[in-house]
Structures are given as C-alpha cells and as structure tokens.
C-alpha cells in the first residue's frame, strides 16, 4: 500500500513534469517473475522506469541510503523503501555481489519484477560498458526468469554531474523482447556461460539504446578518466609554475 502511494505520488509527478516516452511496454508480462536488465546513465533511472510500469519493480541500492541518522536519514530511507529499493551492504565486493544475487532471487521467487544494471555502475560518459557476469546471469540461471533488456535514453542529460536543478526534457525508455536462457539451466557455475549470457543481454541493450559499446568495465573507465583528469591538472599546475618563474625572471631583469 505504501509503495502504491509513493508510486502514485512520485511516478505521477515524474510523468507530468518530464513526460517520458516509452516503447515496448507490451514486452512486460502482466504477471510472473522477470528481470529488467537496463543500461545505467543516471541516478534517476531507478525512478523513471518504475514510473512508467503498472507493476512494481525492485532495484537494489546501497545500504547507506537506509541507515543514515537523523530526520533526513529517516525520510531518505522511507523514500527508497517506498519506491521499491532494497538495501544491500556494499562494504565488500564479493559480499555485495552475493547479497545482490540473494535479493534478486527472493524478489523473483515472489513472482515480481527485479531490476538490475549489468554494468554495475553509472556510465561515466554516456557510452555502454561491458556487463559484469556475476549478478545478472547468476540470478537468471538460478530462477529461470526471462531477462527483458531495457534502454534508458537521455536520462543523463536531465541532471548531469554537478548540476543541482534538473533540466526539464523528455527522456525515453525502450523495452525489448524477453530473452530465454532456460537452455543454460543448472550451469550458473560455468564462468563461460555466465559471460555468454551477459554479453547477449548487453548486445540487445546496445541495439535498443544506440549507444557506443566499450569492451571494458565502467569502473575501469572511471579510474582512467580520474587518472587523466589528475594528469591534466598536474600538467596545468606545472605549466603555471613555469609561467610564474618566467615572469619573475623578467621582473628581475627589468629591475637591473
């Protein structure tokens, strides 16, 4: 009931303000479990997708959103619970992965929709990155639930990093046809199968989104971008220092 009220309030507001367009809603089953595997461009992805669906979809979120102290922390926790987010302890990489898989299986066993971002984190530059094989594929093979590829379009333009006020524009959502991986049932311990399943899903997401595909993990891309920014900052600092030294030498010559 609480979810329904929150969905009506938040979902209705999002649809009214941003008017997201949707293609492929008919690919969402009216009942029964299914995995929604989406690209990840923005923090708002987990809100826009549920807003356009009639059924509840559950995503996982970091535990800190649910345990922060004070009034603000309680309101944040209530908000995330209300929109169907599940807390996952991400303090350890392996532990976080196992917790996410367990949560996904439990949601699907209840006959509900489970949302997951195979890239594992938001894209740092709008491109589509290699999917991580552990979560998505293992949940799919453990439950036999169909995987529905989803492409979020332009959500990263609504609130780019560093921007507090969102830009009012129409994002898009394309929902693909369900993918059946029942042929791999019982093979969730085979890393080659997990990789194959993940790559097939990422290929479908790429076709739906039209994004450029990059065959590295988004986490690695973020490290590269951070290192490049650090290198440029150091070069600019050194250049400014050399320029300062040159100016000081000029002044000394003029005084002579």
From TrEMBL:
CDD domains: LPLAT_AGPAT-like
ATP-binding as UniProt keyword: no
Pfam families: Acyltransferase (PF01553)
Compositionally biased region (Basic and acidic residues): 228-240
UniProt KW Transferase keyword: yes
Molecular function per GO: acyltransferase activity
InterPro entries: Plipid/glycerol_acylTrfase
Region spans: Disordered: 228-256
Domain Phospholipid/glycerol acyltransferase: 34-155
This protein's UniProt keywords: Acyltransferase, Transferase
Alphabetized PANTHER family for the sequence: 1-ACYL-SN-GLYCEROL-3-PHOSPHATE ACYLTRANSFERASE (PTHR10434)
Protein name: Lysophospholipid acyltransferase family protein
Organism: Streptomyces orinoci
């Amino acid at each position: 009931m609480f979810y329904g009220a929150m969905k009506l309030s938040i979902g209705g507001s999002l649809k009214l303000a941003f008017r997201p367009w949707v293609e492929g809603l008919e690919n969402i089953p009216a009942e029964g479990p299914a995995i929604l595997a989406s690209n990840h461009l923005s923090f708002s992805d987990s809100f826009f997708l549920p807003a356009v669906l009639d059924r509840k979809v559950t995503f996982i979120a970091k535990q800190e959103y649910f345990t922060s102290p004070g009034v603000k922390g309680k309101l944040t926790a209530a908000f995330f619970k209300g929109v169907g987010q599940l807390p996952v302890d991400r303090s350890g990489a392996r532990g976080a992965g196992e917790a996410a898989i367990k949560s996904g299986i439990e949601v699907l066993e209840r006959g509900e929709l489970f949302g997951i971002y195979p890239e594992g984190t938001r894209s740092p530059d709008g491109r589509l990155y290699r999917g991580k094989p552990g979560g998505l594929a293992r949940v799919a093979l453990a439950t036999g639930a169909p995987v529905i590829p989803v492409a979020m379009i332009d959500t990263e333009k609504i609130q780019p990093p560093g921007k507090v006020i969102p830009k009012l524009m129409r994002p898009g959502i394309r929902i693909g046809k369900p993918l059946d991986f029942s042929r791999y049932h019982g093979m969730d311990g085979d890393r080659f199968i997990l990789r194959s399943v993940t790559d097939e899903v990422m290929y479908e997401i790429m076709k739906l989104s039209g994004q450029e595909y990059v065959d590295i993990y988004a986490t690695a891309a973020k490290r590269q971008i951070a290192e490049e920014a650090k290198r440029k900052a150091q070069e600019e600092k050194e250049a400014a220092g050399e320029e300062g030294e040159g100016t000081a030498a000029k002044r000394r010559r003029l005084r002579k």
